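Bumping with the actual sequence this time:
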Amino acid sequence: LFLYWVMAFITKTIKLVKYWQSGWGVSDLRFCITGVMVILNGLLMAVEINVIRVRRYVFFMNPQKVKPPEDLQDLGVRFLQPFVNLLSKATYWWMNTLIISAHKKPIDLKAIGKLPIAMRAVTNYVCLKDAYEEQKKKVADRPNRTPSIWLAMYRAFGRPILLSSTFRYLADLLGFAGPLCISGIVQRVNETKNGTNNANGDYSTERLKKTNEILKGIKLLKLYAWENIFCRSVEETRMKELSSLKTFALYTSLSIFMNAAIPIAAVLATFVTHAYASGNNLKPAEAFASLSLFHILVTPLFLLSTVVRFAVKAIISVQKLNEFLLSDEIGDDSWRTGEGALTLESCKKHIGAQSKPINRKQPGRYHLDSFEQCRRLRPTETEDIAIKVTDGYFSWGSGLATLSNIDIRIPTGQLTMIVGQVGCGKSSLLLAILGEMQTLEGKVHWSNRNRYSVAYAAQKPWLLNATVEENITFGSPFNRQRYKAVTDACSLQPDIDLLPFGDQTEIGERGINLSGGQRQRICVARALYQNTNIVFLDDPFSALDIHLSDHLMQEGILKFLKEDKRTLVLVTHKLQYLTHADWIIAMKDGSVLREGTLKDIQTKDVELYEHWKTLMNRQDQELEKDMEADQTTLERKTLRRAMYSREAKAQMEDEDEEEEEEEDDDDNMSTVMRLRTKMPWKTCWWYLTSGGFFLLFLMIFSKLLKHSVIVAIDYWLATWTSEYNINNTGKADQTFYVAGFSILCGAGIFLCLVTSLTVEWMGLTAAKNLHHNLLNKIILGPIRFFDTTPLGLILNRFSADTNIIDQHIPPTLESLTRSTLLCLSAIGMISYATPVFLVALVPLGVAFYFIQKYFRVASKDLQELDDSTQLPLLCHFSETAEGLTTIRAFRHETRFKQRMLELTDTNNIAYLFLSAANRWLEVRTDYLGACIVLTASITSISGSSNSGLVGLGLLYALTITNYLNWVVRNLADLEVQMGAVKKVNSFLTMESENYEGTMDPSQVPEHWPQEGEIKIHDLCVRYENNLKPVLKHVKAYIKPGQKVGICGRTGSGKSSLSLAFFRMVDIFDGKIVIDGIDISKLPLHTLRSRLSIILQDPILFSGSIRFNLDPECKCTDDRLWEALEIAQLKNMVKSLPGGLDAVVTEGGENFSVGQRQLFCLARAFVRKSSILIMDEATASIDMATENILQKVVMTAFADRTVVTIAHRVSSIVDAGLVLVFSEGILVECDTGPNLLAHKNGLFSTLVMTNK
C-alpha cells in the first residue's frame, strides 16, 4: 500500500509539473483535480510512513503487536483507498478521428466505381467496423481498472520483489521468476491467438459471403433443388472457421490456465523451497503476508495478458486502417471543375425546336421512315459542347481497356441517346465521363458551368434509408410546385398515395419495401428534381412497363427536362425513342460505332439503320390504355400488402421478448420491472445444453472441484502456520504439511487446465451445433418466410449473433463462473474465520443485490441504445459506399461527411452514458469491497485463538472487491449476449417445408418426367393457412411438348401457378399430375430436381461459369459448351481467361443483365428436363436479348413442354395453348387464334391493349 501511494504521489506531481512547464497557470488549472490528488496522495503516504515507522507490518524481522484501537489507523487508510483512487480514473475516446477518416476515404477513393459489392464492403466497410468493434471490445472486456501496461508490469514484478524482501531468501525469488517466465510465454500465446484470429476472420467473411448469396438466391436454389449443394459449401467453410476457432480456443485455454495456475505454482515453489532450504518454521505473519501478495498477483497477471492481447489487436487494426487510408485517392480535382475544358464564352448558344411528342390519341408505331430530323446545327469544335471525350481509353483498374478509342461530343441543351447491344459499354461510358473509371489515355473535357454538378440516375437504383421525399429532394430545398411536377412526370403520385404515410414513409434499406420499378422511378425523380445543367439517365426504362416508360419519356424527358433546357444523356435499349434524340451515340464492344443525328446514321450507315428498324418492327409500340393502368394499380396494392407484412414480420422478429410468461392485462410498472430484471435463465440453459450434457457436467464439476481445492490450499496453509503457534511443530510434522500442500497445489494446477479447456470446448460445441441447426432450418424454410422477412434480419443471425456465440459467450461464461465462485469462497472463508461477519453480511448482501439488479437493467438498456445509435452510423457508411457514383455526380460529398459527424456524435453520447454506468458500478463495488474489508478487519481485532484462519479471512477480504465488480459486469454482459442465442432460437422454432413424400425416391422412374404431360385437377393454392386462396379450382391439360402461354393482370395468380408446379406454395385442394405421378406424393428434392425454370431476375453466384451452369458437376465440358453455344455466349466465354473456369463475381456483377439471363437459359438447357417454366424471363432484358432467348426456346426446347408466363402478351399469341387468369380463376383456355376470335374475351382485350 505504501508503494502505491508513493507512485501515485510521484505520478501526479510529475503531471502537475508538466502543466506548469507548459505555461498553464493557476487560473488555467482551476478545474483540474491533479493538485488535489497530489495533496491527498501525499497525506495518505505520510500516514502509511507513520505506520511503517512504528514497525507494524509483518515483513519486518520482528513485527510489533499493537493494541486494537491503534490498528484502526491502518484500517482507515485501507478503507479510504478506493475513495481517493476514484478521482484518478479517466477515459479517453479517440475513435472519432478514425471513423470520420474511414468515411471520408471511400468518397475520395480512386478505384471504386464498378467494383463488386463484396469488394466495396471489404475495402470500405469491414475495416471500419472491425476497428470500431475492437475499440468497443477493449473498453467492454477489460477489468474494472483502466488497462495500463505499466501498472500491470509494476503489479506483476514489483510485488514479487516485495515478496522477496519479506522472506529475504534466494529461493524465494522463485515468486519473481514465475511472472518473468510466464510473460514471454503469454506474449507468444497471444501472438499465436491473434494470428489464428485473423485467419478466422477471413473464413468468417467467406462464410458470410456464401450465406448472403444463398439468401439472395434462395428461390432459385429451392426451385433447382440445390439447397444441399450450397449448404455443404457453407458448412465446409464453417468447418475451416471452426478449425481456426479450435486453435484459438486451445490457446485461449492455455492463457486462462497460465493466468490461474502460475500463482498456485509460485506459492508452491516459494513455500516448499523455503520450508526445506531455510530450515526455519513457517510463521503465520510471513505466510499470509506472502500469500496476500500472491493473491494480488492473480489480477495483474490476467491484466498483463489482456493488455498484450489488446495491444497486438490494436496494431493489427492500425495496419488494416493504414492500408485502407493510404490507398489511392482521386487526387487532382481539376477535371471535375472544368479546368482546361471548353468554355461557354467561346461557344455559341443555340436553342433548337422541340422534339415531336408522343401522340397518345393516334395509335401507331415509331417508324423510323416517318422521322423528321429536328432542325439543329451539328456540334462542332467551336459550338456549344457540354462534354467532349478525346482519344479516350478507360479501364476498371485491371490495366486492360474496357473502353477504347472513345471520341464523342455531347451538345448542350439537347437529348443525347447512347444505344448498343448488351454489354457493349454504354453504362461504362457514363461512368468514365463522371470520372469513375481509370483513364489510361485521352481526356474528358467539361464546360465550366455544366460540370459543377450532374444529376445522375444509375442503372441499379440506389436509395437512402429515408423517406420518399428525402430521396427525391436529396438535400435540395423543398419546392412544392417543382416536387409535384416531378412526381407527376415519373408517375409516382399514385404509389405515394398508397403508402401508409405518403411521401413521409420510410422506404427501408435499399428500398426493400418497393418494387424495382418504383425504386427506379424514385431515382429518376431525384435526377429530375435537382437543379443541374446536365442529367445522366442510365437505362431508366429497364424495370418499367410500356405505360410507365412512355409516360416517363413524354412527361419527364420530352416535357419537363426540355422546358428546363437541360442537357440530357440517356442510355437505353428502347430503340423506339430514337426519333426524339437530337444526338445519337451507337456503341459496340467497348468502342463508339457511330455518332451523329439519326438522319446522319440513316445516310452514312444504312446497315445499322436497317438493323434498328428490324428490331423495332418486332415489338408493339402502342401505349397501354386504361386496362394496363388498372394492372399498375393492382401491382401497387400488392406491393403495399407485401410491405405491410414484411414490416410486421420484421417488427415481430426484432422484439427482444422476455421469458414466456402468462400475459396479464394489468401490465403495471412492477410487472414490467420484474420482467426486465429477470435473467434469461431458460435461454442460458438452452445454450448450455447445446454444448452437450457431458461437457456441461464436466464444466460444473471441475469448476466446483477446482475452487474447492484452491480454498483447501489456503486452509491447509492456515492450519500449517497455526500448528507452529500452538506447539512449535518439528521437521517431521512439517514434512507432512509440505506433502499435503504439494498434493493440493498439484491438483489445483491440473484442475485449472481442465476447467479452462472444458469451458472453451463446450462453447465451441454449442456454437457448432447452433450454427448447423440455424443454417439447415433457414435453408429448408418455406419461401413465404423469405418474402416476409428482410434479408438483413436473417443475415444478422449468421453474422453478429453467430460471432457473439462463437467468441464472446465462452470467455464471459468462464469469467462469470470464476468470479462468482471466488466471491462465494471469499465470503465463506471470512465467515468461517470470523462468524460475527455473518451479521454484517446481510445488509451488505442486500446492498449488492440491488446494485447488480439496477445496473443490469440500466446496462442492458444503455447497450441497446448504443447499438441503436451505432446501426445508423454503420448503415450510413454502407449507403455511402454503395452510392458513391451518385454522391460524387451530385457533388454532395460534404453533406454526407457532415451527416457522418452528426451520427458519430449521437453514438458517442450513448456510449458516454454506457461508460458512465460502468463507472457507477465500479464506484459502488469499490465502496462495498471497502466496507467488507473494514468489517472483516474490525471483527478480527477482538482476537482469535487461530491466527492462521484470521489471516486467511483478511486475505480473502482484501481480494473480494475485484470479484464483486466482475460478477456484476459479467452477469450483465452475459444477459446481453444471451439475446443473440434467443434470436437464433426464435428462428429454430420456424416451421420447415415438408421435404418428405409418400413415394420413395427409388420408386420414381429415372428419366421422369420423360413426356412432359401435365394434368391440373381442380387446383386450389394459397401461400399460408391463414391467407385467402390465390388459385381457385383450376383445371387444365397440357400435352407433351406443347408450348403454353399464361397471362393475366398483375395479381391474377399466373406466377402462383408456376410455383405450384414446384410445390413452393400450399396446395390445399386438387392436384397436379405430371406423366402420371401426383407431384404431392413426391419428395420435394426429387420433384424440383426434375424440372427447369427461368426466373425474371437472373441470378448468378460467385465462383466459375462452370459452377453456375452445373453446380452438381454432372455434365461434361462438351455439354456445357453446347449450352453456351445455344445461348449465343460461347464466343464471349472463350474470350475470357479460363473459359469455363472464368471467374464470376458476387451476383454476376461482371456481366450485364442480359448476359446473366442468357446464362440462366444455358443453365436450364443443361438440366435436360422435359418441362421448362419461364416466369416473365424477358421482363428485365432488352429487345435484342429477348429475341435471342425466344429463338433458343423455339429451337433448343422444341421437343420439350414449355410454360411461359408472359410479360408481353404478344409473345404468346402463337402458343399452342393459352391460359388466361383473372383473380385466381382460369377464365379462358384455348389456342391463341381461337381466343382472339372472341373479341369480347379477356385475352383479346389484353392483346389489343398491348398493341
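The C-alpha cells above came from a reply further down the thread. The first helix runs from residue 2 to 21.
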